[in-house]
Amino acid sequence: MSKSHVNGDDLELVARAREGDQAAFGELVRRHQNAVLRAALSASASAADADDVAQEAFLLAYQRLKTFRGESAFKTWLLTITWNQAMNHRRRSSRWLKRFVSLEVKNAAENAAGDRVAFESLHFASTAGSPEDLAVHGQLHEEIRQAIRALPEKLRDALLLAQSGEYSYDEIGAMVKAKTGTIKWRVSEARRRVKERLRK
Amino acid sequence: MTDDQDHIDTLIDDVAREMTTMTSAQSDADFARRVSRRIADTGERRGTWLTGLRPWVLAPIAAAIVLVVAVMVVRRTPETVRPKPDATESATVGLTFDSAQGTPSDSRGVKADTTYVQPVAALPRIVSIVDAPAPAVEPIEIHALDVQPLVEMDEIAIGAIAIDRIEIAAMP
Questions:
Q1: Which residues of B touch A34 (CB under 8 A)?
Q2: What are the pLDDT digits (tens) for A11-20?
Q3: Beta carbons of A41 and B29 less than 8 Å apart
Q4: Which neighbouring-strand residues pair with B103?
Q5: Where would I find the H helices in chain A?
Q6: ipTM
Q7: Digit-coded pLDDT (tens) for B69-105
Q8: Which of A66, A96, A173, B117 could pair covalently with B90 via S-S, beta carbons 3.0-4.6 A apart?
Q9: The whole model's pTM is what?
Q10: Chain A residues whose beta carbon lies within 8 Å of the beta carbon of residue B26
Q11: What would be the CATH architecture of the domain defined by A3-92?
């Protein structure tokens, strides 16, 4: 890989990759792999699935490089491809996913009493550092994780994408084909539902 | 209470961030290498497939397909249609009985196969009715028709009816 690849902007790298420069495309992969992997991880049930989706997204982007007209940023274009791939993957494994989510919901319901205790003792857990407090904190952590998993897909996707720290609300909107205001509402609603679930 | 709310919000955000955090194995430089390898593999597969689609490979295949279709079309034209041999006839045509062996055989002494079918070429050629010449038929001449009576009956004797007079009443 030459230094010009490292220093060049995305459009320059795209132009080089179109001409068959594999190193230029490799640099694009390195630049955006975190964003792509996080988006894939937001929509996938496992890290292995996310890795597969991310690889497929880059492969598809490479094959469709000639259709990129530069109307949006390369990152946005790439993330849209990634999200579409992730949604296709999700649809393919929807049966498995439904089973997975329902299992999580069942587990969460079984531990509802524990949730309340954990939520009420949150303040103490955040300020104290005893082993007991840490255990309660860890339990709460896990309950929040389960509550997020049990969210409706659109709310969960918005929350995970927003909190990944890789994308702006505009980028998320472009990715999931929704308005920026809608994404903000979904994130807020997701937080509200998680808190509500923890109170029950 | 507001502090608690803020803290739980922060905690939710932290957990959400963790859920999209990659392990070092996922985000390492090896990922780019794996993508590169996958692109190369796909390119090779596509190349192999494209080789099979090149014109000099496709042309003979296309020619063979055209030839097969042409043969099928020619065979289906009415003039070349041959009738199927009659199964009842084919079992006896060309067979003689070999008394020494007790089995039917043909003139070459080969043991007859009861499933033997006379060659199609030996059958008379069937010409389409439309194409056949009109048959020459001599006119039939008839002098008279002699028709016998269908029923013969004896005479019927009817006696006279005796009536003295007929009285008709006066009209009103």
A1: 22, 27
A2: 999 999 999 8
A3: no
A4: B98
A5: 3-7, 10-18, 22-43, 47-63, 74-92, 94-110, 112-120, 122-127, 131-149, 153-163, 169-176, 180-199
A6: 0.71
A7: 999 888 876 655 555 555 554 444 444 455 455 455 4
A8: B117
A9: 0.55
A10: 37, 47, 50-51
A11: Orthogonal Bundle (1.10)
